[in-house]
Amino acid sequence: MKRYGTVFLNAYTNSPICCPSRAAMWSGLFTHLTESWNNFKGLDPDYVTWMDLMQKHGYHTQKYGKLDYTSGHHSVSNRVEAWTRDVDFLLRQEGRPMVNLTGDRKHVRVMEADWRNTDEAVNWIKEEAINLTQPFVLYLGLNLPHPYPSPYAGENFGSSTFLTSPYWLEKVTYEAIKIPKWSSLSEMHPIDYYSSYTKNCTGEFTKQEVRNIRAFYYAMCAETDAMLGEIISALRDTGLLKKTIVIFTADHGELAMEHRQFYKMSMYEGSSHVPLLVLGPGIKEQQQIPNVVSLVDIYPTMLDIARIPVPQNLSGYSLIPLLRGKAENELSPRGPRPSWVLSEFHGCNVNASTYMLRTDKWKYITYSDGHSVLPQLFDLSDDPDELTNVAVKFPVIVHSLDKILRSIVNYPKVSSSVQEYNKRQFISWKQSLGQNYSNVIANLRWHQDWLKEPQKYENAINKWLSQSK
């Protein structure tokens, strides 16, 4: 795709976690508008997505694999950890990140469920799409390169295992793997420390362990890439490739031990930056677009491709003008695309609502009400690894970026709404359990820590519940 299509160099998720990110992509709306606060709370099942609109306008639509943009999914642990993030306690919620090698050099299909979905999509292209008289839109959602579950961590385990086979691992050049620099635990931003601790990453890790986690992650990416290759081959073999636009992206990134964390939930590049590649008729070859874009742009882009009028209330802007290299304002009735993107996070493993504004070289991250937690400012041109917070050094930049952010979202108010929502949800969950509450809460993903001092943690929750706003 990179060779024959266009790459967006600065594409971002609008919320670095599965369900809220996908809710933004399918709705074209920022997270504070969908109120998709965590992995349990996404869009209503009857929400009109871009695919629904395309179907209404005569497209044949087909979906395979992971969708995960509506409410009601993911584990109880995931929900409770998000709801209780304001409680004054610190518990490890994930298994320690680890690697696992499976099978031999001939073992290609490691992530079997993804391969099954890929096969179904390939068969659909070869048997159905080729015979359609109407245009089609096909969606394939893969789980890879998401880490795998870690059952060794006991009941309600998380996903902290990077799993692959020698077939894929041999494609990774170990010598090229960069070992990320870490701040000492005492120097970490308080929110980062909470994330690192809850993700079970504050212990000792050898360089070899870190290199392995990163190598296995890259091997998992290679397997994902092979599935994409199967789709492109099927389109080429059926003669459909020359009249089909292909878009490849992801709901979020993977830190793979950058900033002493794995997984996502962070505004650092490893987690919030996503791949976005486009290939097809009218799309320039080997084009690299530096403009900042985000997943809410997918909705208007899909409608633009289908020549369907784009609703005016969307947060996103069509990518078509950038892809075709045209002046933006001749095409968009809403005027030019903004020079910023917004990402926000309100879920587990982070103990404050987080807002990120990315402009040309700056990344501004602020938390909660904008006062109680120190903001972060990174100059990505000078500090691509985001190791030096220059917020104190550049107060004028901070002020101007904060002003832009507040013009998009009243973030102290949103943070406060999320806090109230978390408390309401927790109380209702607690009441639903009755006598079983103490036992259930003790045996969630944090059980290894909780069971050492159950009363201490229950007391901390009771104190939080008794605090009024």
Brief summary of the model shown:
The chain is α/β, with parallel strands linked by helices. It has 17 helices and 13 strands. The radius of gyration is 22 Å and the shape is globular.
* Major beta sheet summary: 5 strands, mixed
Spatial separation of the terminal alpha carbons: 51 Å
**Topology order in helix (H) and strand (E) letters:** EHHHEHEHEEHHHEHEEEHHHEEEEHHHHH
Task: Report the β-strand fraction as a percent range.
Answer: 5-15%
Portion in helices? 25-40%
- Which term fits the overall shape? globular
Low-confidence runs of at least 5 consecutive residues? none
- Let me know the number of strands: 13
Cα gyration radius (Å): 22 Å
Q: Indicate the multimeric state.
A: single chain
Mean pLDDT: 95
**Count of DSSP-assigned helices:** 17
Structural class: alpha/beta
Structure explained in plain terms:
By secondary structure, this protein is α/β, with parallel strands linked by helices. Helices cover 36% and strands 14% of the residues. It contains 17 helices and 13 strands. The protein is globular, with a radius of gyration of 22 Å.
Task: Give the SSE map.
Blueprint: E1 6-12, H1 18-27, H2 31-34, H3 50-56, E2 60-65, H4 76-83, E3 98-101, H5 112-127, E4 136-141, E5 161-164, H6 166-169, H7 190-198, H8 207-237, E6 246-249, H9 269-272, E7 273-274, E8 276-279, E9 287-294, H10 298-305, H11 320-324, H12 328-331, E10 341-345, E11 354-358, E12 362-367, E13 376-379, H13 395-408, H14 411-433, H15 437-442, H16 447-450, H17 454-466
Parallel strand pairs: 1-9, 2-4, 3-5
Antiparallel strand pairs: 1-7, 1-8, 6-8, 10-11, 11-12, 12-13
